[in-house]
Design a protein that fits this description.
2 domains; 3-stranded mixed beta sheet; globular; binds zinc ion; mainly alpha; 3 strands
Length: about 475
């Protein structure tokens, strides 16, 4: 689309969003839900599939009806325009071009949060987060994030002080993109992404689109000098894809055939990317496969080089390129800032300073410009506030679910060294995917792992792995 087409596109998107919202919130839909609720045959057993679907449909309907259609249309138009201006401002590293749009986004997000409201003692952020992580509040996120941040900071200090960091040789190799593509496709197949029900293509920013369990499309990306990024991105999106493919086909389009939340979705991608894809046993298998595919180009790399190279920790500016240990710091910074913006305690104009101060404090680095600072992410420009913490919640759920899978199957990791990944996929199918939206995220965590969400499993995972790799 030519850049001047953006205003008209904004109006088109706005009209469609308003029409879709009017359909979904029509009184007829409300009457149909009420009719089903009144039918005791359908609701006699509250744990039945139908009764569960009804509870979730009611929740979605009631929530959607709190928003006026005019505001839904306004948001769609603003998101279209703000995203366009964000991209231009980011390319020019000129925050002043984005600032008026961010001001409009904050204002609209505050009005939207008012429509939804929040529980006593809560705050505007809670009203918005509910769309991404039902049941999630800022206060709860803070109780999970605070101990996590303290422990992460201690771990990072020790890692950065290591006298025996792993070799970075693996990340300095130049490998042809066509061979990389063959390689990551074979990994995707091996870990259980079903190519009869999905596709893998290339895009600048990898993503997953799930239309139906039989049609799940994921993308990845390639750089000649960064095979690790292609492996990580592919396994990450495969994790999202395997979740979508594992949803119940007989419930497609209904809550029981849908993902629980963004946090749980992210737990699935992170598990394959990190718990599996950066594990020692995975690299015992993958190192052999590397030699088969790339031959002499990788012949000089030892097992320690590839496994260590896949686990390098280095505080840096860009969230999407961050390693497993520093990643969550990026999220905490965004969470703190959007909480303040929504409370009216941080103006758009002050975002760059607030951002840079936190990067210095949490990661010890000086942000060189706003392109690598507060303008790096698309989320705020697309009116997505209350979203960021789902990434860290995903990491936490991932570690906790993975520990439970390892307890249930003590030989799980030993299998990876032989290229056996089906037991984990099956466990996830049975303990996460099959439930759809039967439980909310916190409840699902309790059911699948026997405990409420805690930062402990993630910290155990990082501390034990990095202590060995960095000789701590
Ligand atoms: Zn993801």
């Amino acid at each position: 689309m030519p850049s001047n087409g953006i205003d008209h596109r904004g109006r088109q998107v706005s009209l469609l969003a308003r029409m879709a919202h009017e359909e979904a919130t029509s009184t007829q839909v409300g009457e149909l839900i009420a009719e089903c609720e009144a039918d005791s045959d359908l609701t006699a057993d509250p744990t039945s599939d139908t009764a569960t679907n009804l509870v979730r449909l009611r929740r979605d309907y009631d929530r959607a009806t709190r928003l006026p259609s005019a505001l839904v249309g306004e948001e769609a138009e603003l998101a279209t325009q703000a995203q366009h201006h964000w991209a231009k401002a980011r390319a020019a590293d000129d925050f002043s071009q984005f600032q008026p749009w961010l001001t409009k986004v904050i204002d609209l997000m505050r009005r939207k949060a008012e429509c939804f409201g929040w529980a006593d003692g809560g705050e505007p952020w809670d009203g918005l987060a509910e769309d991404y992580e039902p049941g999630c509040t800022a206060a709860w996120v803070e109780t999970v994030f605070t101990p996590l941040r303290e422990r992460l900071q201690g771990l990072l200090d020790r890692v950065m002080g290591s006298r025996t960091p792993p070799s970075n040789a693996f990340n300095e190799l130049c490998l042809p993109v066509d061979a990389q593509e063959r390689f990551v496709r074979s990994i995707a197949t091996q870990i259980g992404f079903d190519f009869d029900c999905g596709r893998l293509d290339v895009s600048t920013h990898p993503f997953c689109s799930g239309f139906h369990p039989t049609d799940v499309r994921i993308t990845t990306r390639f750089h000649e000098n960064n095979l690790n990024d292609a492996i990580g991105s592919t396994m990450h999106e495969c994790g999202h894809g395997i979740y979508e493919q594992g949803l119940r086909r007989d419930m497609a389009g209904l809550p029981l055939g849908s993902a629980v939340s963004l946090g749980i979705h992210e737990s699935q991608s992170r598990m394959w990317e990190n718990q599996v894809g950066r594990s020692e046993s995975f690299w015992h298998w993958c190192h052999g496969e590397l030699n088969k595919t790339f031959g002499s180009a990788v012949a000089g790399l030892s097992f320690e080089d590839v496994y260590g190279g896949a686990n390098i920790v280095r505080p840096d500016f860009i969230r999407v390129e961050a390693d497993e240990a520093t990643y969550n710091m990026h999220i905490m910074i965004r969470f703190e800032l959007e909480r303040l913006m929504l409370k009216g305690e941080l103006d758009a104009a002050d975002v760059p300073t607030a951002w840079n101060e936190r990067y210095r404090e949490y990661l010890g680095i000086d942000v060189p410009d706003n392109t690598r600072g507060c303008m790096q992410d698309i989320h705020w420009s697309m009116c997505a506030m209350g979203y960021f913490p789902t990434y860290t919640l995903g990491n936490l759920y991932s570690a906790q679910l993975y520990e439970a899978a390892c307890v249930a199957m003590p030989d799980l990791e030993a299998g990876y060294a032989k290229g056996e990944f089906a037991p984990l996929r099956t466990w996830l199918n049975d303990n996460v995917h099959v439930h759809g939206r039967r439980y909310e995220a916190a409840e699902l965590c309790q059911v699948a792992t026997g405990s409420p969400l805690s930062a402990d499993p993630l910290m155990r995972h990082l501390e034990s792995k990095l202590s060995a790799i960095y000789g701590l």
